[in-house]
Amino acid sequence: KWQKERDDACFSVPVDSEVLDVDFDFEKNLALFDKRAVFEEINALSKSDHVR
Amino acid sequence: FMRKHLSDPYEINLMDELTLKGVTQYYAFVQERQKVHCLNTLFSKLQINQSIIFCNSTQRVELLAKKITELGYSCYYIHARMSQQHRNRVFHDFRAGLCRNLVCSDLFTRGIDIQAVNVVINFDFPKMAETYLHRIGRSGRFGHLGIAINLITYDDRFNLHRIEQELGTEIKPIPKVIDKSLYVPEFQMEEN
């Protein structure tokens, strides 16, 4: 069911949608994901697992 | 057999290891619902000679191929639920250059060895490092250049982290302008 929702979200955008007329904003989206901070968080998580 | 018929043979292993050398790897951060938009922009901006686009399920291969066709780009698709004969036919035609884009699931066990493919797109980011290497990696004797672009959602963050660690590689954020000499043959310097 989760997969179905994911597919719907991904493929239900109509191809004549106005969204597609403008370029996808890569920079704006990259700014929403601080890779280094997320990775540090993951590292911290795995370390604390290790201690336990 | 060898000892009987060959005198003093040299043994050479012709199965080259897969390598990420020569492949520049980028990621774009997206939401699931932005993936098609993102792909459409990549198609219009990149100088694609031939491309392979990977999805994580046969269902998604079919849905994406349909979408790409509706967007006005030609594409073939292959996945595991097609007959081997049909798959071979499509792959042969793609290799012969009859179509620019190929959408597929994970069928290649030896990496991609088509010289004309200069762009690989992971529409869905894989879970395993081995899968990533098979999709992006090249066998050593085809050390030609290319780019790989990964569409990354927030849910992919653990896989991204693990795959980078396991392969000892770095996937960088996609720059505003991608240097053509990284993947367009005409822009490449003479190779040594």
Task: Please tell me about this protein's structure.
The complex is a heterodimer of chains A (52) and B (192). Chain A is mainly alpha-helical. In chain A, 62% of the residues lie in helices and 0% in strands. Chain A is built from three helices and no strands. Chain A has helices at residues 2-11, 26-30, 35-51. The longest helix of chain A has 17 residues, at 35-51. Chain A is flat, with a radius of gyration of 18 Å. The two termini of chain A are 35 Å apart. The relative contact order of chain A is 0.07. The mean pLDDT of chain A is 88. Chain B is an alpha/beta fold and 192 residues long. Chain B is built from six helices and nine strands. Chain B has helices spanning 2-5, 35-45, 58-70, 84-95, 129-136, 157-167; strands at 18-19, 23-29, 50-54, 75-78, 101-104, 117-122, 138-139, 146-152, 172-173. In chain B, the strands form two sheets. Chain B has a seven-stranded parallel beta sheet, sandwiched between helices. In chain B, strands 1-7 form a two-stranded antiparallel ribbon. The longest helix of chain B has 13 residues, at 58-70. Chain B is globular and about 65 Å long. At the A-B interface, helix 1, helix 2 and helix 3 of A face helix 2, helix 3 and helix 6 of B.
Describe, in short, the structure shown:
Chain A is an all-alpha fold. Chain A has three helices and no strands.
Question: For the report, how would you describe the main beta sheet of chain A?
Answer: none
The count of DSSP E runs of length 2 or more, i.e. the number of strands of chain B, is 9
Q: How does the major sheet of chain B shape up?
A: 7 strands, parallel
Q: How widely separated are the two ends of chain B? A: 39 Å
SSE topology:
The complex is a heterodimer of chains A (52) and B (192).
Chain A: H1 2-11, H2 26-30, H3 35-51
Chain B: H1 2-5, E1 18-19, E2 23-29, H2 35-45, E3 50-54, H3 58-70, E4 75-78, H4 84-95, E5 101-104, E6 117-122, H5 129-136, E7 138-139, E8 146-152, H6 157-167, E9 172-173
Parallel strand pairs in B: 2-8, 2-9, 3-5, 3-6, 4-5, 6-8
Antiparallel strand pairs in B: 1-7
